[in-house]
Amino acid sequence: MKTALITGSTSGIGLGIATEFAKTKQYNIIFNGLETNGAEIAASVGKEYGIETLYSGANMLKPEELRKMVTDGIAKFGKIDILINNAGIQYVSPIDEFPDEKWNAIIAINLTSAFHLSKAVWPGMKTNKFGRIINIASAHGLNASEFKSAYVASKHGIVGLTKTLGLEGAPFNITCNAICPGYVKTPLVEKQIGDQAKAHNMSESDVVNKVMLLKQAVKEFVSVETLGQMALLLAAEHSNTITGTAISIDGGWNAQ
User: Fold this and answer.
1) Does the reported pTM lie above 0.85?
2) At residue 112, what are phi and psi to the nearest 5 degrees?
3) Does 198 fall in a domain?
4) CB 3.0-4.6 Å disulfide test: which of 14, 35, 79, 210 passes with 86?
5) Which CATH number characterizes residue 40's domain?
6) Would the pLDDT of 219 be above 90?
7) CB-CB contact of 151 with 102 (8 Å)
8) Angle at 215 between CA 212 and CA 219, to 5 degrees
9) Catalytic site residues?
10) CA-CA distance, 246 to 5, in Å (whole number)?
11) Which residues, including other chains, have CB under 8 Å from residue 151's CB and lie 6 or more apart?
């Protein structure tokens, strides 16, 4: 059994990816999230699919908690083979009104936490001559939209980090790739719909059709199952030559 650590995995995209990994019955999973019932969510997935799980409430803003999550995971499972940096937050605002504290939090959670966790798992992956780091970036890691200065900056940053780690990890069979989804219907996106409606002064249905999915050729939200299956491919033994890439799953957004 391999072990996968997935941040932000007690809700949304992270929980969807964790579930896809659990279905294979080939991975122990370290769950992470700030939900008050996070331990119960992890235990429930483990029981349903017959796998071992561990829950950590490590806060992405606190590097010492991230390092402890890694050491606790290694203590329980012996190693961490796959790291999926998924945790993220969003805030929508014109640049001149963007709160400093929101910028700092978005950069810290979306980007800096991935640095701390990658650094923490790296020695073990080097020793084991196997590692798969998967960063959940965004279509906004390759493109920009108005009113999302911090989010776009953080996701462009995670794509850059991905490329660097892909190069550094090559001699040790450590790969690093970014998945860049379009809009996924999660609680985070549900909140964005309301925020965008206010920013653009339009109805929520118009935001979905005229703003969010406007640039997608396929007018559908991306499914968490699709993201999970892509992550499984990137985590596989035979995917050792896929590294340093940013893979779009965006309904054709980047084809324009």
Assistant:
1) yes
2) -65, -35
3) no
4) 14
5) 3.40.50.720
6) no
7) no
8) 70
9) 151
10) 20
11) 90, 91, 106, 110, 138, 140
